[in-house]
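note to self — DONT lose this again. spent like an hour looking for the file last time. sequence + predicted structure for the chain T wanted, 357 res
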Amino acid sequence: MTEGRGRRVIVGMSGGVDSSVAALLLKEQGYEVVGLFMKNWEDDDTDEYCTSRQDLVDAVSVADKIGIEIEAVNFSAEYKERVFSNFLSEYQAGRTPNPDVLCNAEIKFRAFLDHALNLGAHFIATGHYAQVRETDGRHELLKAEDGTKDQSYFLYRLNQRQLSKTLFPLGGLYKRDVREIARKAGLPTFAKKDSTGICFIGERPFREFLNRYLPARPGNMETLDGKVVGRHTGLMFHTIGQRHGLGIGGAGEPWFVAGKDLARNVLLVVQGHDHPALYRERLSATDLTWVSGEAPHCHWVYGAKTRYRQADAPCSLARVTDGTCEVEFAQPQWAITPGQSVVIYESRVCLGGGVIQ
């Protein structure tokens, strides 16, 4: 295949199977492919919890097998300023942020894109499961063919400039096929386990990590009518809908986190997965980003995700201003969590979204 002939693409290679196959497919399509390994975290980059050293070795091994150049670039300063500082401030404010969304917008598709263009690239590419389609001069972000792996939720902040310069070679493939392509090509990452969790935390205990940056303030756990049923070690360690780790004994149904009273430093808890306090029919979101550059129409029927892997929930936009939007759901939604993102879809097209308040 020669569709990429004469065009240079720089592929973000993480050392995983997805980005390995993305690079391989683009090379087979005739692109001039260069791999780029991004280092985004340095504070405690030890082998005990951080896999970056092994990931770099794997990325270099894949590049050697494919026959492409690869370089490593350090974006840890940009990451700390643009992503990690927001992560800490959100937890300090009692919310539960999603740093992967901000990392994509600020590092993988901004700092990386700028770096690649300075190296003479026509495009950048990643191993994300998503698709880009150009329609009437505008670029649309689409869900991946493999609905179980679709990552458009994490990419909703991408804009027209970023999408116009981005290739997602895996968007039309299923994960099982990606691994098979890697196996047949003899790529050393074909059976490598997918990475999970927040990149800078890795496999380390979350509370231990967060305690190093934010002071924990213990307080009471209370029912909605004010009865004290336990103690928490810090509001920042808990999220709406959380069941495990509360340490509340007694008979009856399991306990769940229903809210946070920041003024009193109290964690509000209820019994039962289907307690009414865990459901919301509407939400407010800020820090809005729309892929097309324009907000969707109000009162039309859309689908929305308030967390990754959630099925699209029918909804409408009741109000959209420059800074906020109101989302109304056809059915009450469980455990809507401040700090997470609500992402709006029209069928397979990701329209954008914002941060839940």
